[in-house]
Amino acid sequence: MDEQNKYRSKKTGDYYERLVNRLSDYYLKHDLGMLKKRFEPYARVSRTLSKNRFLAVNTGASGADFEIFLRDGRSGLIELKYRTSKMITLDALQAKQVEELALLNRWGFIGMVLVCLSPKGEEDQWFLVPIDEFTHSTKKSLNITDLKRFYVPLIEQTDLPDLISKINDLQLRNIE
Hints:
Number of helices: 4
Shape: globular
Helix content: 25-40%
Radius of gyration: 17 Å
Oligomer: single chain
Number of strands: 10
Structural class: alpha+beta
CATH topology: Trna Endonuclease, Chain: A, domain 1
CATH class: Alpha Beta
Strand order of the largest sheet: 1-4-5-7-8-10
């Protein structure tokens, strides 16, 4: 990936992470739950530089992006993925992320991938996808048709995806 695409990708990722942080603020305000950003595994390698900055090195593969804690005691991890197409490849997740989410899912916790597909000229479409969908043995990607059953509506009068209602829906279906 060239430098310009890396910059654009980071800027877009930052925007969607801020959107999830706004969702956490909304959930906290309404006493429904909390989402917390998990930070990348870096180790500091310099003294403080100007304006509270320092140099750091990556110390390993990163896990899922967010921890989620719901008012009723459920918790887990959610990985956020954004694509400007109508599909997401199954290899969009790193091995450590798949392992972490699958383990939590197996233990009965939340282990899901929040996918935002935003094809050019179209509105964002949100999907909350169980990790099992990313470990398919025959498929290489998931398109909008595959993801339709995981569609996440927006919270009324906001631009925020309603994760809690979709988690409830998916976990109820899993029990039945």
